[in-house]
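Narrative summary of target 7.
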Amino acid sequence: MCHVIVTCRSMLWTLLSIVVAFAELIAFMSADWLIGKAKPLTSEDMDSGTGGSQEPYRPTLGIYGRCTRISHMQISRRDTLCGPYAENFNEIASGFWQATAIFLAVGIMILCAVAFVSVFTMCVQSIMKKSIFNVCGLLQGIAGLFLILGLILYPAGWGCQKAISYCGHYASAYKLGDCSLGWAFYTAIGGTVLTFICAVFSAQAEIATSSDKVQEEIEEGKNLICLL
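Modeled conformation, tokenized:
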């Protein structure tokens, strides 16, 4: 018989697992990993804009995508063109970024699989006498290691020609040059930290769903068990 077991700790773990997976996925797809050096306004920009109040535009560069402003058009968000600069995997600017893409993609796929499974832990807590929470926690730990490897390798690619064109000639491996880090990089780091927190917290979720109070509710014949 299926028992729906919802506890505060198991629900929190499920929500965190989903949030972490989406955060890493959004960061990976974003082009805001590097914010390039400011490009001065042209005379056409000044004429079509609102005058001297306009700030120089700073293009952004991601692992495989970029955002740049189309020249000779009015300065507005509609003039910013974002999309992949690499049509295939081999065209990614750096071998280090290719490795980063692989490690992040593997880690994100694991996190998405765990997030999907976590939704069903309310009904099924074990498979073949193995706790789903413990298995998912182990997978989240493995995913976190893949994410760390990707984030460590990513700055090694700052010396590629693509990054230099955005960050200036002083850019090199682990040196930003004229660039600054964008929100996507910080989101990826935050998501990695939360991944390990989820891995640890999965043990608490397992303890909560197998506690004596839950067993008492099951023995009383209840199918829906909600505990704080």
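Confidence is low (pLDDT under 50) at residues 72-78.
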